[in-house]
Amino acid sequence: MTRIGLALAGGGPLGAVYEIGALCALEEAVDGLSFTQLDGYVGVSAGAMLAAGLANGLSPRALCRSFIENDGPPGDIIRPALFIRPAWGELLSRVARAPHLIARAAAQYAGPRGATLAALERLGGLLPTGLFSNASLELHLRRMLSAPGRSNDFRRLGRRLVIVATDLDSGEAAPFGQPGWDHVPISQAVVASAAMPGLFPPVPIHGRWYADGALKKTLHASVLLEDAPDLVLCLNPLVPFDAREHRHRVGDTGARIPRIVDGGLPVVLSQTFRTLIHSRLGQGLKGYETTHPDTDILLFEPDRRDPTLFLANLFSYANRRALAEHAYQQTRADLRSRRSSLGRTLARHGLTLNDAVLDDPHRRLLPGRRPRHDEAAWTVRRLGEVLDDLERTLAAWPTSHVTEAARGPRAVQPR
């Protein structure tokens, strides 16, 4: 029987929105795939919360109702307000330290020449490590995962779940859920993994301080690969944007950027951050090809030529419905444009693409008025997807007798 694992990367609220849309599209389009019945889950940052839900039996559609639509059982609804409550405890603790730090900085400033910079550096201790509290989110997740039929205890889950955070003092990965790490409540591990420096304070657990799991690696898929699964599905929401082909609007101003640099510092920083984490992801996938030759790895992520998710605010909730729908439709388009190669890989594990679902132009993630269907535009898009699929098939043709017949590493990535 095929053993399947799922690795979910981070990316703030936007990452969670993308992954929910993509998970819904994948589960509907791949016959035989159920994201609540997998053999293993690993989640990082925003992906940690989704992985914990899936491992507890919450389907992608249920996660969509609770996080995107704010619908369903009241205890499951994850409202934006949970993420934006000021970290008063952290702020007050910094204020309490102010007299001592200021006195020491003043003494250092009055010392030998060249001590000015060191004095200013000491005053950095006055700055809070996070603006928003994660206490309310942890409490909500604790109650949500403690509902009947669920568990907030790694050891009582029917399926393997690993939530990865980073030990702030050592820089090492903390794989909560692994033996020796499974005594920590899942809700606490999730908020630790999602504690992005600057936004949320590090989370204290048994005398150690933990922060965002993405500080160490993007996916941490190696946690699943240790058990030699047959297939690992990976979702990564953040990719660098390819602005070479088109000029795209920035925000709501209508301004256009023919080049990334014209978007100013926020756009440049976003591109830099995405490029760094994506480069690290690529290196990791190449390493897995050598270390785990018997596992198929399928990566799903946004199209680098698509500006919609790149230009969206990483921490915005206001447009989550539109962005989730976009991620859903973009993933469906990705599946169509990789239909041949994905179909062969999935077939090795008893899974099949549902062509009727994929080719339905009216299928949507969220209820509401359907947009007017433009038959001509749909035909043009479908032609482009078919050509993309054909291009990939022809590119792989010279070595197809090796890549398709041999059981070897296949990290299949989107264009």
Description:
With 415 residues, the protein is an alpha/beta fold. Helix content is 43%, strand content 13%. It is built from 15 helices and 13 strands. Strands 1, 3, 4, 5, 6, 7, 8, 11 and 13 form a nine-stranded mixed β-sheet that branches. A two-stranded antiparallel ribbon has the order 2-12. Helix 1 packs parallel to helix 2, helix 4 runs antiparallel to helix 5 (116-123) and helix 11 (320-337) packs across helix 14.
Feature tags:
single chain, 415 residues, alpha/beta, 9-stranded mixed β-sheet, two-stranded antiparallel ribbon, 15 helices, 13 strands, 13% strand
How would you briefly describe this protein structure?
With 415 residues, the chain is of the alpha/beta class. The protein contains 15 helices and 13 strands.
Strand tally: 13
Estimated helix fraction: 40-55%
Strand content: 5-15%
- Largest β sheet strand count, sense and barrel closure: 9 strands, mixed
Specify the number of helices: 15
- Radius of gyration over all CA atoms, rounded: 23 Å
By oligomeric state, this entry counts as single chain
Structural class: alpha/beta
Order of helix and strand elements from N to C terminus: EHEEHHHHHEEHEEHEEEHEHHHEHHHE
Which runs of at least 5 residues are low in confidence (pLDDT < 50)?
A: 249-255, 399-409
Identify the overall geometry: globular
Distance between the termini: 30 Å
